[in-house]
Amino acid sequence: MRRFVQVALLVLSGVGLLRTSLFTEAYLRYVKEGMRPLLIASGVLLILLGVAEAWSAWRSAGRRPETEGDSHDHGHGHDHSGVPRVARLLFLPALSLLFYAPPALGSYTASREAPKAVAVVDEDGFEPLPATSPLPITLTDFTQRVQQDEARSIEGRTVRMTGFVTPAGGGEGWYLTRIMLSCCAADAQSVKVRVYGVEAPKADTWVTVTGTWHAQGTLGTSSAAVALDGRTVGEIERPVNGYTDALPLALGS
Questions:
Q1: Pairwise CA distance, residues 52 & 58, whole Å
Q2: Higher pLDDT, 83 or 131
């Protein structure tokens, strides 16, 4: 029984990994896109280990003497070589890879951690902004320009950003949020921009927001609020790989 459980766990886990990484994009909920080859290799390896274990068990069974079946009895009249029942709970994560994909990280995670500290940009590191209006911009770039760009290039500009909704808790407004991964979901970090003036859609809804900088603090310094006076907000589909702070999607795309 013990070897059967080992074989089943190895094969189920391997098949689940291959299904998730080869035939769906669900793996992007847990790891970065570049990890896909490693997931595929891991799935193949688990299946091979399961096959090898099954082959070993079959060969052992063929060589076992007829009286060997009683060798584990220890004189008590029953076999103690079985797998503890609690070990069978390991089937649940293996089966989940096949039949159920947990949801992507979202507002629950983002609301329980401080926003990621954005990198400091060199004094001459800000490129001139195009004249496009509204200006497509990432949440990270918006944060850097609001708090570090002494030229105040963001002042008076209508910008457009994409992310998902995170409730702000107490006070006014809500957060437009992106979650980024360095490797996997365990090291997720968020970047947030507070939005005022427009009603918040339901938490975790992906939206594109347009608006202007919320004038609070001194623009170009760390006292400036990383916030937006919203003008429009429109729902969009979640990007396939939502764990990047990419340029915004167009409304309705």
A1: 10
A2: 131
